[in-house]
Design a protein that fits this description.
The complex is a heterodimer of chains A (about 260) and B (about 325). Chain A is of the alpha/beta class. In chain A, about 30% of the residues lie in helices and about 30% in strands. Chain A is globular, with a radius of gyration of 21 Å. With about 325 residues, chain B is α/β, with parallel strands linked by helices. In chain B, helix 2 packs across helix 3 and helix 4 packs parallel to helix 8. Classes of the chains: A alpha/beta (about 260), B alpha/beta (about 325). Strand 9 of chain A pairs antiparallel with strand 12 of chain B. Bound molecules: flavin-adenine dinucleotide (FAD). Flavin-adenine dinucleotide sits at the interface of chains B and A.
């Protein structure tokens, strides 16, 4: 059983995001990149499956600032191989990544591809779902739990719906799953283990061509117009609390 | 021609609210393109329900046992066949749990672009444009499609009432493509667990997000909720951490609430969260980041530490109540 986890680094949303002079792209100069949080869940689910079955886990991610750290961390968490996709340029679109993967993945002989359900920069669609479409593989997104049956080569997955509803689906492998949440929160690994992984492993590199991305262009990128922007209450906590209590009292909400 | 195709969404035997929102969006887009509006209605036992989709000029329906429950691979196969035969200018899909399994793979199969998280779609000089929420709602990308494309529209972006009109659309049955050999099977639905508190019925909700820091701090939210006579709910990460049960989650994959007061404490306001609470009567947000998207939907905002503000507010509310 060979599980491939596809991840990508995205801007840390806690930081300020600025638009560059072109008005169409992010200013990437001081951007801090982190592994997409849902890809962290995909990795966690893969490692849990590896622990439960005899599986190998390979993690793939496009080259980016900080990708080495992310990949070594993945190895420290339990991945067996880590592969950097090079040749995609800075900030490839989901479509470009998916197209590159569609040509590179078949040679890896995988049984299951896990990706995060989405990423914050998926303007043109989710990598996993695009990949499934390109390769004609069965796919399920918004998944919160994967069980494998190695004998029948099937995965049983739980897909989330609004209101806490879940659907159970059975998929024949190979398949692509978009992971929303792993069965448990992504594990933490101490820096010492990451350092150890750096000593024990080398990152592989896979040269890929950026696939064609069909006719879509960004005309402008901007901060949302503040239509109904909040009225801000200033002052220390007590002052703010008193103002808030007034507002609530006026509406009959403090009774 | 400028045909716009809306993909109707079903859940447990009926069209979902977002279907009518898509019809409203599709109608405007079709007008802008000078074209017609079609709706693809895939399901089983739908025959009597297609009339509800009267906002469209044409209902393309497929009624088959295989389409009873949503199976990504099967629905994709049927939808691809419909789109290949009709060649619409734009396909509108909901950016929901089911729609996300259709939009991107469909675009990939057809070799056309996909735009995720659309909040607006419209036409200019015969071209299709969209505004998409990216980076957790912190930025908006305005995109132009050169040719046909698939647009995934976020729930709550268009008024459902505008798409809930009766009419007498032409009804055509979709010839089904072969469905043998599909590799995915629907097994069953799992119902949500019974809740001790029904947050959709609460008038006052204190909602906590990752900004609360530690699990122990939840007590501060509980205390404020108790003082105000409300309940505590949460954003998704807290539920994923197991700090609160799933039935307290607000948002896309949780519940939609409309309380008199929604106090968002340490919640960034990701689009998936906003989907579940943007129509609350009064929204108050506390966040250390003045640029957090939650402030775009809040009526009142406090830039500050959630723990400090929650404690101070609890004390203030208690003091006032004690005074009567
Ligand atoms: C298909 C899908 C479905 C989803 N469904 C849901 C859903 O139903 N509900 C949901 O909520 N999410 C959902 N999400 C997840 C969503 O994308 C976000 O990840 C989530 O809403 C973020 O939660 P948060 O705001 O608590 O955390 P974060 O985005 O991490 O925000 C934490 C906030 O706290 C602030 N903060 C930090 N410290 C403090 C402090 N001391 N005082 C005050 N503020 C502080 C930060 O500035 C930040 O704005 C879904 C995602 C997907 C892909």
């Amino acid at each position: 059983m060979h599980i491939v986890v596809v991840g990508k680094l995205v801007p840390d949303l806690v930081e300020d995001l600025e638009v560059d002079a072109s008005g169409r792209e992010l200013d990437r100069q001081f951007l801090k990149l982190v592994l997409n949080e849902f890809d962290e869940h995909a990795l966690e689910e893969a490692v849990l499956l590896k622990e439960a079955h005899e599986a190998r886990v390979t993690v793939l991610a496009p080259d980016a600032d900080g990708v080495d750290d992310a990949l070594y961390t993945a190895l420290a968490k339990g991945a067996d191989r880590a592969v950097k996709l090079v040749g995609l340029g800075e900030a490839p679109s989901s479509r470009q990544i998916a197209a590159a993967l569609a040509s590179a993945l078949p040679s890896l002989n995988f049984d299951l591809v896990l990706t995060g359900v989405q990423a914050a920069d998926d303007l043109d669609g989710q990598v996993g779902m695009l990949l499934a479409g390109s390769l004609g593989l069965p796919h399920v997104g918004v998944v919160t739990g994967v069980e494998l049956d190695l004998d029948s080569r099937r995965a049983r997955v739980r897909k989330e719906y609004p209101g806490g509803w879940l659907a159970e689906l059975e998929v024949q492998l190979p398949a692509v799953l978009g992971i929303q949440a792993a069965k448990q929160p992504p594990r933490y690994v101490p820096v010492s283990k990451v350092r150890q992984a750096m000593k024990e492993h080398t990152l592989e590199e896979l040269s890929v061509e950026p696939g064609p991305a069909p006719g879509l262009s960004v005309r402008r990128l901007f901060k949302p117009e503040a239509t109904g922007r909040a009225e801000f209450l200033d002052g220390g906590p007590e002052e703010v609390a008193a103002r808030l209590a007034d507002i609530l009292a006026q509406r009959g909400l403090v009774r | 021609m400028g045909e716009v195709l809306v993909v109707a969404e079903r859940f447990r035997g009926d069209w979902t609210e977002v279907t009518f929102e898509l019809l409203a969006a599709g109608r405007q887009l079709a007008q802008g393109l000078g074209g017609t509006l079609s709706v693809a209605a895939l399901g089983h036992g739908t025959t009597d329900q297609v009339r509800a989709l009267g906002a469209a000029d044409r209902v393309l329906y497929a009624d088959a046992p295989e389409l009873e429950a949503f199976v990504p691979e099967v629905h994709l196969r049927v939808l691809e066949a419909v789109v290949r035969s009709r060649q619409p200018r734009a396909v509108l899909v909901a950016n929901t749990s089911t729609g996300m399994d259709l939009a991107a793979p469909l675009a990939a199969r057809l070799g056309v672009p996909c735009v995720a998280y659309c909040r607006r779609v419209w036409a200019e000089d015969g071209q299709v444009l969209a505004q998409s929420q990216v980076y957790g709602g912190k930025l908006v990308a305005e995109v132009v499609l050169e040719g046909p494309g698939v647009l995934a529209v976020v729930a709550g972006s268009y008024p459902a009432e505008a798409g809930r009109v009766s009419g007498s659309p032409a009804v055509e049955e979709i010839p089904l493509p072969p469905l043998e050999g599909t590799r995915t099977r629907f097994v069953r639905f799992v119902e949500p667990e019974a809740a001790d508190v029904d947050i959709t019925r609460e008038e006052i909700l204190v909602a906590v997000g990752r900004g609360i820091g530690d699990r122990e701090n939840l007590g501060l939210a509980e205390e404020l909720a108790a003082a105000l006579g409300g309940a505590v709910c949460a954003s998704r990460p807290l539920v994923d951490n197991g700090w609160l049960p799933k039935n307290r989650q607000v948002g896309k994959s949780g519940l939609t609430v409309k309380p008199k007061l929604y106090l968002a404490a340490g919640i960034s306001g990701a689009p998936e969260h906003l989907e579940g609470m943007r129509n609350a009567e009064l929204i108050v947000a506390i966040n250390t980041d003045p640029k957090a998207p939650i402030f775009d939907v809040a009526h009142y905002g406090v830039v500050g530490d959630v723990l400090e503000i929650l404690s101070a507010l609890t004390e203030e509310v208690r003091r006032r109540k004690a005074q009567g």
